[in-house]
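<amino_acid_chain>
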Amino acid sequence: MPHPFNCSPSDRNHRIDIMLKLGLCLLTMSAIAFGQVPPAVEKLNKDAVSLQNAVNDLINVAIPGWGLPNAKGAYLEGYGLVVTLEGPLESPRRPFGDVRTPADIRTTANQRHNEVIQKLSNLLKQKVPTLESVSPTESVAIILNLVNTNPADLPDLPSQIVVTVKKQDTAPDRIAIREYK
């Protein structure tokens, strides 16, 4: 039996040889396991830009006076396409000459909130089946981060709305809508 603290050159070479063989085996197996072909960059960019533009157009119609569109899209490998944007449902109160009551602000914000959710769901139903860079098992998500410009009037406004759907499940009852406070 070799001594446990033996550091002879032949013993070290044997251990290094075993480690190299093990490393080569792991490298080969990981290449096989992760050998999925990612979608082409041109398709990713085209799909991301297409969805970004559609979300910007939709939000500018649903929330007039929002200003510059700011949707950003990204492809997350293993998940799919994600588009994020940020904005208010209602413009902030002006200190002078604003005649809107808190009830008016709540009504307008709730109406826009429901309209945005409905339009984002419809957009996903229409766009997701046509996206080439998203595989059938991947998802598409639109994340709307809401800025509460009137916290005194809208204390229970969610801070984030997430609308997601898997490409293979674009049926109306399969679209997931989550709101976070």
